[in-house]
Write a structure and sequence with these properties.
Length: 429
Amino acid sequence: MNLDKVRSDIPKRLIQIAEGIRDVGGKCYLVGGFVRDAMLERSSRDFDVEVYDIDQETLLGVLKKFGRPNLVGKAFGVVHLVTHGLELDFSFPRTESKIGEGHRGFLVETHLHLTFKEAARRRDFTVNAMGLSLPDLELSDPYNGKGDLEKKILRHVSSAFAEDSLRILRGVQFASRFALSLAPETAELCRSLSLADLSSERIFEEFKKWLLKPGKPSLGLQAFLEMDLGRFFPEIRPLNGSFENLGSLLDSVSNELPNVPDLTSQEVLAFAALLSGAENVQEVNAFLSRITNEIHLLKRIPLLYQFVPSLLDHANAQNFGAEFLRRASVEQNGLFLAYLYLKSTPLLANDMRSLFAEKFKTAAENLGVFLNPPEPLLKGADLLQMGLKPGKRVGEILKEEFELQLQGKIDSREAALEFGKASISNGKS
């Protein structure tokens, strides 16, 4: 750990607060993500602080000198402070005991005089169970998280891990994001646990972190398989008979995600990749309906999944015909995601994949349908201006004209208007 870099990452305001806590007899630690990221020499703005040996009123007295503290989690002893644009969370060491179903079914008790080791026992993985004392930056690592991080191992801290089943899915996304492999005993424990008490919202969030945050999703897939999570998500199947193929696709798609400008499209591409091995679109729909109710995803992910076989057939034949591209662009609302999928799939030979993808892109750009689908050249207002009365026939003519556009038989505004006039004058009105 580079202490100079860590010092530069910690705001002076937080150091001043820590000195204030020390002056009234307390001590505090930066915990969780900040310490893990510091070990990896990554910058972090995840400032979670655990405070020991003073009570809540004393802590509030210190924090009021720096801003207006907000007691956001009274039952959990969590105080939120915004100071000089900086957001900080302060909490007290606590124990958690499982007393009911779900992520709310815990008895949480704060204890001012717990040792750091006792408090860290409730954390999920050893790499998240380290603390960095403030203001002196001494590492507390009672469960050898530093050693596990150096060995690239993801290991649960204690048997308390089993009390929160979300930690299983957190293991998948941590394996991906930090290039970690599951400790055998952790994989064994996860295989004995259930996800039945988790809400779809929480499951969806962990899947998104696995697939969308920078990392190596194939390592998350490896953890997924070692935990036997196919028990709960049987739709995640090998791609063309191989989970290695699926992992390769996920990693390649992950590398392309920074080029995708909006979150929704990133989700569409990533989840379509994850479900590429599904046997049919019904499986895709079944998986998605269990984890999300977001209509745009429920619609667009199956569409991309269904388009992929045709896309690969045309790529292998090196035949990106104009009509195929126009119709595909209408269906897919542009072909950018299909292009990125084509660049990423291991089902095309490595030496040909980029060539096919660039040919696809160039052909679609030449037609003006790469980023956006083709627009109808004939409008309803045109037909009304020509004297056609509002009614069913307006829609029929528009549909006929657009079909001819997709076939390439109408390629200009003038030709579209002529078609409209002819349709009316031929007595079809």
